[in-house]
Design brief:
This protein has 262 residues and is of the alpha+beta class. The protein folds into two domains: 192 residues, no CATH class; 62 residues, no CATH class. It contains seven helices and eleven strands. It has an eleven-stranded antiparallel beta sheet. A hairpin with a 4-residue loop joins strand 2 and strand 3.
């Protein structure tokens, strides 16, 4: 019980810190391209969107985003007052990052697999589990759009590690950065983790793609026969390969499905 209470207090402290970041002033960048946010009513508001995360912390983009509406930009000032929004405020957002449009949508998905996929025990591992199990809604990056939508979802790391746990947590964070999960939603249905088995099921209503799959024309669907000697071992030892396969499934199969079966 004490451990649960401590975890809860740490999480509340983190939430409070995010709330205090609102109304921060940032310098505008030359040639900065506008993006937009979608508020809870569905209204699209254009302006400058700043990603809260980066390559080292991509999961932060799933929790919050910084934004200033075009109508609120004061051209006479060097610095502008951005606001920070989280999943309780928005349906989604689009940010221009290195000239690429990145779209994030607010989806209801809990990353149970990542919650229990940890090499750290004790408080560090428990906090990681808590961080993932309590995120029932998050901004997920849209990587395939159409009848089947696919999102890239990162696990949330532990927010505490000490002693020998630090190196383990760092290695685990690196793995999570390099191996996001891929989550699909078909026709607006409940988001679920994408696997080779599920991919074959959800493309079955498209004759063109189903035929290609049955003939073995998709290399990414030929690699779903890994030997699994228990769920725990599969999660720990093969998660990297599994996620790589799913990225290939998105690029090869889902994209083809959305193009041929609109």
């Amino acid at each position: 019980m004490k451990k649960i209470l401590l975890i809860g207090l740490l999480s509340l402290a983190s939430f409070h810190a995010y709330a205090q970041e609102d109304n921060t002033e940032y310098e505008m960048r030359t040639g900065e391209k506008p993006g937009y946010i979608i508020d809870k009513s569905g209204k699209k508001i254009e302006g400058i969107v700043r990603l809260a995360g980066n390559d080292m912390s991509p999961w932060t983009n799933q929790k919050k985003v910084k934004f200033i509406a075009s109508s609120d930009i004061d051209g006479s000032k060097k610095k502008q007052k951005f606001k920070t929004y989280d999943v309780d405020d928005l349906k989604g957002y689009m940010a221009v990052d290195n000239d690429s449009e990145r779209v994030f949508e607010n989806i209801k998905y809990t990353n149970v697999k990542e919650a229990y996929n940890t090499q750290n025990g004790g408080l560090s591992g428990n906090i990681k589990a808590f961080n993932n199990l309590t995120k029932s809604n998050q901004f997920a990056e849209l990587v395939a759009d159409g009848k089947i939508k696919v999102y890239k979802v990162y696990g949330f790391p532990t927010t505490f590690s000490a002693g020998s746990q630090i190196a383990v947590a760092d290695a685990e964070n690196k793995r999570m950065r390099e191996n996001p999960a891929y989550v699909y939603s078909k026709k607006g249905g409940k988001p679920e983790e994408l696997t080779a088995v599920k991919a074959k099921m959800i493309i079955a209503d498209c004759p063109v793609v189903r035929t290609k799959a049955s003939k073995g024309e998709y290399a990414s669907l030929k690699n779903d026969t890994k030997q699994r000697s228990g769920l725990g071992k599969f999660i720990r030892n093969e998660v990297g390969n599994a996620m790589a396969d799913n990225k290939a499934i998105v690029d090869e199969v889902i994209m083809d499905y959305n193009e041929n079966c609109k």
